[in-house]
Amino acid sequence: MPNLLYLHGFNSSSRSAKAEVLRDYLNDQRPDWQLIAPQLSSTPAACWAQLTRLVAEQKIRACVGSSLGGFFATLLSEKVAIPSVLVNPAVTPAMLLSQALGEHTNPYTGETYILNQTHIEELVQLQPSSISVERYLVLMTSGDEVLDYRQAENFYRGARQCVVPGGDHLFTMFEQYLPEMFSFYDLYHADEQTDTG
Predict the structure, then answer these.
(1) What is the pLDDT of residue 194?
(2) Which of 26, 33, 54, 140 has its CA 20 to 30 A from that of 180?
């Protein structure tokens, strides 16, 4: 059974609304997939080390990443050549999080941690310079109040994209796009099998 990896956003949780919607959908509609939704480390280098270990231990066939999780999903897709669906992805999180330095408390887990300049530099070092556009389906809302969707639209130009007018950063209509998401995964892997003979 193929594993689908869900990566949550900054200061969020593996039990966030999108993760729960995805879990329910797999149970009801796509029992041929198994969900892996880890609670990600709160700092960039630790998070990347966690994900690197995970993909070494598990056979991950596809990924979903929301916001900052979209950034890490992109890194994984480039590292292990898997398809990713990105939901309002953070393209340059170093710029975004440099405005959020200081102490944070995760509202889901209660964890308190400090985001500092070293963590911003970690994000800069992780920033991909190029991507393989065929690996991505990018879902964005023009009304995203946290990120400018046009950054993702430009960075992932050439990838499959869907810009929903209005909406918000949470992408509350996520459930409506799950059939399209799995069609993308199925098609990607079908093409991969054709290419490799």
Answers:
(1) 63
(2) 54
Pick the CATH number of 3-190 from 3.60.10.10, 1.20.1300.10, 3.40.50.1820, 3.40.50.360: 3.40.50.1820
3-state secondary structure the chain: CCEEEEECCCCCCCCCHHHHHHHHHHHHCCCCCEEECCCCCCCHHHHHHHHHHHHHHCCEEEEEEECHHHHHHHHHHHHHCCCEEEECCCCCHHHHHCCCCEEEECCCCCCEEEECHHHHHHHHHHCCCCCCHHHEEEEEECCCCCCCHHHHHHHCECEEEEEECCCCCCCCCHHHHHHHHHHHHHHHHHHHHHHHC
pLDDT digits (tens, 9 = 90+) for 13-50: 999 999 999 999 999 999 999 999 999 999 999 999 99
- Token pair of 106 as six digits: 């995760």
Q: What percent of the chain has pLDDT over 90?
A: 90
Please report which confidence band the pLDDT of residue 75 belongs to, taking 50, 70 and 90 as the band edges: very high
Rg value, the chain, Cα:
16
**Contacts of residue 53, Cβ cutoff 8 Å, sequence gap at least 6:** none
Q: Write down the domain spans for the chain.
A: 3-190
